[in-house]
Write the structure tokens for this entry.
Amino acid sequence: MGYKLSIINQKGGSGKSTIARAIATCYATAKWDVKIADLDINQSTSFEWLQRRLTNKIEPVVAVEAFGSANQALKQADNYDMFVFDGAPTASRTTQQISLESDLVIIPTGLAVDDLKPSVVLANNLTKEGVDKERICFVFNRATGSDSEYQEACEYLQQTPYFLIDGRIEDKPCYRQAMDLGRSVIETRFKQPRDKAEKVIQNIINRLETLIEGA
Ligand SMILES: Nc1ncnc2c1ncn2[C@@H]1O[C@H](COP(=O)(O)OP(=O)(O)OP(=O)(O)O)[C@@H](O)[C@H]1O
Ligand SMILES: [Mg+2]
């Protein structure tokens, strides 16, 4: 049986597809058989990104498939070493279904209370629906701001029972440009932002490994 990750947040533009593509790229580079399940059939962000990736001949190839429902996607999940659900921008039954099935649920959020608060509410709702709180984590994306703003946002999330992934991915044109070309944020040409994004993604992987080892 393979591992499953869900990247969710009812807030549009928080970085679900961004984090999904970066994690999938990381595992594909390590030669895992990985697939992104794009559950947002209205936008198909990850699926279209794959088309750009193929057009620009970027290695490794990352498999992406669009699915109309969680059930359809879940049927395929165990055919892969790693199955990454790129969630749709609604807190739907689909979100609940994939979260319940996942080894790790990742909620990308920005630094503002406007982003933090609904992210925590989402996590609380998932635990009420039966998702193990240990399996839920927050990751900062598009988190540009002063150190004190970052610190305050960390403190806000540290008061919750959920894990906070160390580090932050800031909002940078080089990340956007990378994704426009079919790359992920860990494949931007610029070393410093690439290293920063890589660290965050590695911390997500470390969290998953800790949970698997403890299971
Ligand atoms: N760290 C970042 N720096 C710069 N641009 C970013 C960053 N993260 C995401 N973006 C850009 O912001 C937009 C939204 O990101 P993304 O598609 O990952 O969010 P999403 O949560 O999947 O959105 P949706 O809810 O619409 O599916 C995209 O145009 C993406 O290129
Ligand atoms: Mg998306």
